[in-house]
Write a structure and sequence with these properties.
Distance between the termini: 42 Å
Structural class: mainly beta
Strand content: over 45%
Largest sheet: 6 strands, antiparallel
CATH architecture of the largest domain: Beta Barrel
Number of helices: 1
Low-confidence stretches: none
CATH class of the largest domain: Mainly Beta
Radius of gyration: 20 Å
Helix content: under 10%
C-alpha cells in the first residue's frame, strides 16, 4: 500500500479514509483567491455505500486501499423480512456452502447489470468481500420496448427500453423487445446491438 498526495486522488482510485476503503467518484482541484489549492472529491464507502464530499488540501496524503478481486457467480436476490433489506447472493467457486450476500448499498447501481448465474468480479479488502465490479460492457435482453411510430424522430430517433434486469436505457428506434444489446455499465449507455 502506497501513500499518495492530495493531487493524486483521482476518479476510480481506491483510498483509505477514516480507516475504511473508499472509491473516488469525482475529483476537482480548485483554488480560491489567496487560499492554497484543494482537491474537492466525492467518495463512496466500499463497505457501507455511503457517499461523502471531502476536500483534501496540500498537506494531506492518504493510503491507497489494497483492493483485490476474485471471480464469483451471482445467484439470486431476496428480500429479508427480518432485517427489512434486499440481499444479493453470490457463490464462490462451486461449493454451495460458500455462499455469501451483499446488501443493496454494497452492490450499488451494479444490480442493474446482474443476471442470474453470471460471473462477476468481487472486490475484497482484508480478505472480506466488500462489493462487486461488473464488466465495463454487458449483454442484456430488452424486456419491454415501446412500438416504433413512423415519423417519430422528434427526439432524435431514440426511445427508452426496459432490460431484463430492470435497467432503463435509451436506444435507437430500431431496437425491439427480445433484442440483445450491449450496455456500458460505467455510463449506463447503449453501445450497440449484440451480434
Amino acid at each position: 500500500m502506497g501513500i499518495i498526495e492530495y493531487n493524486a486522488i483521482r476518479e476510480r482510485r481506491h483510498i483509505v479514509y477514516e480507516n475504511e476503503p473508499y472509491e473516488v467518484l469525482e475529483s476537482s482541484i480548485k483554488k480560491k483567491n489567496r487560499q492554497k489549492p484543494a482537491n474537492q472529491t466525492k467518495i463512496r464507502n466500499l463497505i457501507s455505500g455511503a457517499i461523502k464530499q471531502v476536500a483534501f488540501h496540500q498537506s494531506d496524503s492518504v493510503r491507497v486501499a489494497d483492493i483485490d478481486k476474485k471471480t464469483v457467480t451471482y445467484s439470486f436476490q431476496k428480500f429479508n423480512r427480518q432485517t427489512d433489506t434486499l440481499e444479493y447472493w453470490f457463490l464462490e467457486g462451486t461449493d454451495r456452502s460458500a455462499r455469501f450476500f451483499l446488501t443493496a448499498e454494497q452492490v450499488g447501481d451494479a444490480y442493474l447489470y446482474l443476471r442470474e448465474n453470471t460471473q462477476i468480479d468481487a472486490l475484497t479488502w482484508n480478505d472480506d468481500v466488500i462489493g462487486i465490479k461488473p464488466p465495463i460492457k454487458v449483454t442484456l435482453t430488452v424486456k419491454d420496448a415501446p412500438p416504433n411510430i413512423k415519423g417519430n424522430t422528434v427526439s432524435g430517433g431514440d426511445k427508452k427500453v426496459t432490460l431484463e434486469t430492470g435497467a432503463v436505457v435509451t436506444v435507437p428506434m430500431f431496437i425491439e423487445s427480445g433484442d440483445a444489446i450491449i450496455v456500458n455499465t460505467e455510463t449506463g449507455a447503449y453501445v450497440e446491438r449484440a451480434k
